[in-house]
Each structure stands twice: as structure tokens, then as C-alpha cells.
UniProtKB/TrEMBL annotation:
CDD domains: AdoMet_MTases (cd02440). Pfam families: Methyltransf_11. GO terms for molecular function: S-adenosylmethionine-dependent methyltransferase activity. Keywords: Methyltransferase, Transferase. The gene is ubiE1_4. One of its GO terms (biological process) is methylation. This is Methyltransferase. Residues 38-135 form the Methyltransferase type domain. Signal peptide: none annotated. The lineage of its organism: Bacteria, Pseudomonadati, Myxococcota, Myxococcia, Myxococcales. PANTHER family: TRANS-ACONITATE 2-METHYLTRANSFERASE, TRANS-ACONITATE 2-METHYLTRANSFERASE-RELATED. The keyword DNA damage does not apply.
Amino acid sequence: MYLMESTEEARRLLEQEQSQDTRDVLLRTGLKPGDRALDAGCGPGGIAELMVERVGEGGHVTGVELHEGRLAEARTRNAHRPNVTFLQADVRTTGLPPDAFDYAWSQYVFEYLPDRDVALAELIRVTRPGGRVVVSDIDGLGFQNWPFPEHLRLGTQRIVEALAARGFDLYVGRKLYSEFRRAGLTDVRVHLMPFYLSPGAAEARLVRDWKTRFEALAPVGAAVLGGLEAYQSHCADFLAMLEDPEGLKYAVTLVTEGTKP
């Protein structure tokens, strides 16, 4: 179940996907010219676009996305690129042939999957022996703030617990290293990237990103904080904290990679 749907979600996803950090980590985790690459859960196609640039004319990128609207955006965005294909499928059951890819990538998808072991097994299945499987995901989003007023910390914790009950894991990033090893992948490595880093008042993009997130989570937040008014008050206080010039706010992404034996 995708909990973050809102009118601004496509914009938010593209801003995440098109960062220099994403370009760097694709290179660092082994995406090469000529590779056959998979973007599992490709969203509006921003990362697939970067992958196509990297693999070049001799390579090919396949994007898999379940959401029809995101899939249409990805196809439109990449319509002029002949070496990319987009398919509608669940990342857990892609229907793709085994050993088809040199490099399989998934970003900000596993946090939504209570059965992410099934998704990881599918990425491994479609990757050739010797190929790389790479999963990029958040770890502890929303808690790395200082100062962090107690009422905000407690309210955030209650929302996170409610999300966890729905299968959404904000701490998935730290769990992937051991899950990769249990799945039989070798040469497992982890890279830490900033999701955001904001000493002082947060820039407008980050504030806008949190507003989009709060819009999507309103039904969950209102249910656990005692109503919509209480939730909106929590959101307003959180946004004010982001804009506090005296505070530090940050969040991290953990990128886990391994080789299929």
C-alpha cells in the first residue's frame, strides 16, 4: 500500500530522483556502460533517465512500476530514449525472465513492503550471476532534529508506530545489510548518503517536501493524534522547527549492494 500519494507526489519523487547523490551512487555501486539494468519501482522515471545516460547506447534500462499514473509519466519523460522500456508490474512479481540483468536497482520502495524478502528474492532472481543488486532506502526519517521539542518527538513517534502497523518501515535502511547476507548475496556493502541536511532554517524545497508528506499522512496522523485539528497543529509546529535558524535537521539514506553468486 502506497501511503504517500498526494497531488504533489510526482514532483517530490522527481526532486529526490534527480539529485547528484543519485548519479554518484549509481556509479559507485557498479552501473556501467553497456549494462542491462532494472529500475524496480521506477516511479515517474527520473532515475531510469539517469541510468540510461550511464549505460549508453550499448545498454538498456527496464523500469517496473505498479502505479498507472507514475508509469505514464515515466514513459512520457523518456519517450525520446530508444533503449528504455517501462512495464506495469509489482516489484515482487515482475514476470521478467531470470538472469536478465547486470544491475538491479530499487529506491524508496522497500520501506512500503512488509514482505520485502519477497521483493529482494525477485531482484536476485532476475539478476545474472555476478550482477549487482542495489537497494536504496531511508533510515529514521523525521527524528534527527536538534533541538527536538518533546511534544513533537512524541507525536512523531505515535505517527511512526501507526505507519509501522500498516507495514511501513521507517527504519528499513539499517536492516538491509543482514537481509542481503541472509538472501545469499556476497560482497555486501553499505553506503550512507544524506537524504537532507539542513543546519539553520530549512530551504524552501525541504519545507515543501514535508508539507507534501504531511498532506498524504493526514488520515493516519489525525487518527492517532486525536483529530485533524490536533494533527494540523503538530504539522505546523514541525514545519516551524524546520524553519528555526538555530536548529539542525538531517536524515540519511542507506544504500545496500551485493553480488549474486
